[in-house]
Amino acid sequence: MLGAAQFLQLSDFHFDRDYSAQFGNIAEKCHQKSGVKRSKLGQFGDYACDSPKSLIRRTLAAAKEVIPNPDFVFWTGDNVPHIDDYNETYVELVLQTVSGMLYTAYPNVSVLPLFGNHDYAPSNAFPDHNCSLYSNIYKMWKNWIGSANMDTFLKGGYYKYAAPNNVTILALNTNLYYKFNQAIPTFTNPSDPADQFKFMTDTLDAAERQRQTVHVVAHIPPGVFERTPNFTWMLPQYNQRFIDITVRYADTIKWMIFGHHHTDTFHIVKDPRTRNPVQVYLMAPAVTPWFNGAGANNPAFRVFDYDVRTQQLLDAKTYYVDLDLLNKNASTKWQLEYSMSQTYGINAITPQTMNDVLNKIKSDDSIFLKYIEYNSVRWNYSMPVGKFRAAQLCALEYPDFDGYDSCMSNYWSFTSSTGSRRHSSQQRRRKRPQSQ
User: For bias kind Basic residues, which ranges apply (predicted)?
Assistant: First the structure.
């Protein structure tokens, strides 16, 4: 296609240096706690645990085969595994290892690295001021981030990237707004942690005046986790302010791309005055297969097609591997799971086309089940019922908490379902998800 180009998104590696296929105990996060051999775990990981190095290597090799020369790579954070009692040195070693693997795979490509909420010691403790981790990781990522971004990165772990065609990409640290962020009581500016909201609006104001385009990429999105009812990410004041900025600069912002969920989903943002869709948040599934309490997933990465001239997203293609099959046969290939444009019959990814997709999901159970299949990257999926069905639909349509709460209070209106792949015993087994 004339003018079409591509970029790659990789998210939530959660690389576990201590995964042991031979001695690992699932009850101990697949770590070796003794010299006793146990039932052998998979060489490439287990749905109960985080990613061994072999899975990350295989992911990057598959991505390199699918998209050898992307315009850039969005690396949307969370590289440290879901473990306890690690220190800053451990974080730096993990980030150094994964950074090196990414550089080896894409040595001549612009990589935009981001912090995930686990990429700190302890996890979920990002400060809104200079700290040793910001400083050390800046040195590690300087060649990707650039010296012009030193001040904002040292202040709060965020920066902007000057892309071709007068395009700016805001690479944000939304972990600051996470409701589990232990550093919030120590914030020097609680109304605007690390002055990141001001950074956003200043950049967007300038772009608006000059009629330029801005893209936004971050780890944690606003909104609610779709697989567990009423499970929010950001503190309410930060969630709403982020959405308000999204609405105010809807004509300037083109892409808004996130990770963190570990699932494949999206959120529609509507203008509260007109209820017209003005933006869409796109969340990519994770590389780690880790079961978070609400479900696991098969490892995945995402390739976006976009129009260079208009900066319009044309398609999002998700590639995956069935982890069980990969563990049984190491030569198992990653494959295209689905194309968003082909599956949903759209010619571009816009707020309006994705709102149309949402309406199809709400009204057609066959399309809803297809969305559910992709939501977990084909892991043990079934048609959600009752409040779990409502949680999916309300999260898609209402990233604002008031709208979501109102939607959930009427969840009974969504419970009628005419088809199911399997009865939702999986839904009844779900627990409250852990911090992702």
Answer: 420-436
